[in-house]
Amino acid sequence: MKSTRHMMLGLVAGxxxxxxMPAMAQDTLRVGAxxxxxxxxxxxxxxxxxxxxxDIVNEIAKRMGTEAKxxxxxxxxxxxxxxxxxxxxxxxxxxxxxERLESQSFTQPYFEGxxxxxxxxxxxxxxxxxxxxKVVGSVATSFPEAWLxxxxxxxxxxxxxxxxxxxxMLTDLQNGRIEAVVNDVxxxxxxxxxxxxxxxxxxxxxxxxxxxxxxxxxxKLETVxxxxxxxxxxxxxxxxxxxxxxxxxxxxxxxxxxMPVPTSAD
Length: 266
Description:
The protein is an alpha/beta fold. The chain folds into two domains: 21-112 and 210-245, D-Maltodextrin-Binding Protein, domain 2 (3-Layer(aba) Sandwich), CATH 3.40.190.10; 113-207, 3-Layer(aba) Sandwich (D-Maltodextrin-Binding Protein, domain 2). 36% of the residues lie in helices and 26% in strands. It has ten helices and twelve strands. The longest helix has 19 residues, at 2-20.
């Protein structure tokens, strides 16, 4: 009887310990990512992913007691994968917008984005106003595309071309099929350091808030958001920012300021 009682107590204690460590029982964190978006995320030749947001999501998974499994997808497919619950998190320098918040959830932001106008070397396009009468392009369903379409009459560009991939867009720019592109300025600077004959002709300050997208009402949202806050408070986020951006984040910036889960884009 005594040994049976001890065995039962041991089982109860073990069960209680398991309940006290829920993070260790987490399933693999399923992550969707656009695979050609450096320095945010990029699929390498060996099939692995690297980048600023890759490091962030890997650290999140580690602190949840699991690991991240990242799948590359077309940009448009990321929204379907999140809305359907096929992935737990999406990373791809995504901007929080009120329209997206209607069908998706977002974590707190960790980067304040800006757009850039990409052009060929020697181009006289050095401002948004200079896009008047030009053929411009951007990535389908992206924030830059929405930004351009909302300002079509104001800017007065001659034609707009939508692309499924950044690579195809920049190839057309390089070959003169379009005269300018509008995209995330950090990504453009990185791409142009690898491609010859292209430059950023103008910066566009937008106040975008980059964050991770999750299925609407995800039961992991609060946990992930708290981990991001912890990473900001303990210096991990700042270290990753400096690793990939080459400079330390500014005091009071999104990279170092813990925030609640956003309920609006404001």
